[in-house]
Please model this.
Amino acid sequence: MSEPKNYVLVTAAYNEEAYIEKTIQSVIAQTALPLQWAIVSDGSTDRTDEIVLRYAARHPFMKLVRVQEEHARNFAAQVHAITLGCKSLQGLHYQFIANLDSDISFGPTYYKQLLEKFDQDPGLGLAGGYIFEESHGEFVTRPTNREYSVAHAVQMFRRECFETIGGYRALPYGGPDWHAQVVVRMHGWGVKAFRDLPVNHHRPTGTADRWVRSMIRQGRMDYSMGSYPPFELLKLARRFPSKPYVVGSFVRLYGFLWGYCIREERPVSREFMQFLRSEQKNALRKFFFLSPAERTLAKSRARHSEPVCTDEVPGGKPPAGHNA
Model:
């Protein structure tokens, strides 16, 4: 039997009174409790702080960290809140650190089982569960779940890995989770989401207007990360058979191409972009050189762990020319 592993949690919350209690109840019910949980209230004006303080009075491992100063409500705000939460945990002895969104719930053995996954694979640097969302009264797996990509809502890092990559990066169009996963692989660590660890996401999908803006933002995010244009085109084209994604694909492509039109400067390093594109080019080679039978098999595997071409590609050994 290995010795118990200590882990800490960080949650950034802004006006989450409708959901955060479910998250708190999930954490306090864990068979393996965190050493400490920093909940950062990012200027909340509802009952978020009151709810957290009520539970923290009974559970000493919980603490509320308030962001008082005025700031823009953008994609960087959440990263700054998480960073503040991480700083509040300095001085503690722990082996793992996890981001946890404030609209998530899961079973009582979730973190115990996740820590066991890390124990089984010493090279695993980033892991988490599969996201489930409500549809017609029941929670079903999110269509974009992949074994090689861990959702930001439940990303857990081995501490050495998290400190090596420098934590999350604040980016103008979001995507700190995508950026983190790529950098984790650049440093030779493994990334994996586990289908047998379900987590429920409770926030409903936004309005059609917000959806269109989100698609444009995602396209601009893809450009800002340095996504390889042929990969981006194929990725979006493969979504056409699904009617809800046809319009979204064109809108996202518009956002992607707009970055080229205005010659927008990318916020990522050249090494990051080269590494990402090398992964995407490998995915394209696999796609175009598969036989019909192999392609049918690949489409089946793409639903979970072996995609041919999607938002990100599976990690493996770092391509030649990059340090592990």
In short: The radius of gyration is 20 Å.
